[in-house]
Amino acid sequence: MTRVVFISADGEHRQEVDAPADSVLLNVAQAAGQPLEGTCEGQMACSTCHVIVDAADFSRLPHASEEEEDMLDLAASATRTSRLACQIVLDDALESLTVRIPFESFNMQGM
Ligand code: FES
């Protein structure tokens, strides 16, 4: 089980969910009603599953692949600790993971 904490783009809302081992972060986020589109369903062909990982947690995750890095280069508002949620598999050793929803997803929801 991994405790996942989602922080809204404006930093005002926080949602905590427990995800079973080996869940994909994108699926956990969508099941929790977080505004991540994940248009390509994990094919690394979009960047609508972009999340900003808490700096301390970022260093505990396995590194992003080159394809993922390339896709993140195209994501608006990507930061040093950005990842694609469809590429993060939650492993029990992680225990907890905090991610923030970037502004572009937030704006898309509001339209
Ligand atoms: S869902 Fe498209 S890159 Fe993650």
Can you describe this structure?
The protein is 25% helix and 22% strand. The termini are far apart. The chain is globular. 29% of the residues are buried. It has one domain (2-104): Beta-grasp domain (Ubiquitin-like (UB roll), Roll), CATH 3.10.20. Strand 1 (2-7) and strand 2 form a beta hairpin. It is built from 4 helices and 5 strands; from the N terminus they run ββαβααββα. It has helices at 25-31, 55-58, 66-74, 103-110; strands at 2-7, 14-19, 50-53, 82-84, 96-100. The protein is an alpha+beta fold. FE2/S2 (inorganic) cluster is lined by residues 26, 38-42, 44-49, 71, 84, 86.
Structural class: alpha+beta
Task: Give the beta-strand count.
Answer: 5
| H and E string | EEHEHHEEH
Superfamily at the CATH H level?
A: Beta-grasp domain
Which CATH-level-2 architecture? Roll
Report the principal-axis shape: globular
The level of helicity is: 25-40%
Please indicate the count of domains.
Answer: 1
Indicate the CATH class: Alpha Beta
The side-by-side strand order for the widest beta sheet comes to 2-1-5-3-4
* Individual helix count: 4
Radius of gyration: 13 Å
Q: Which ligands occur here?
A: FE2/S2 (inorganic) cluster
Strand content: 15-25%
Q: Uncertain spans, ≥5 residues at pLDDT below 50? A: none
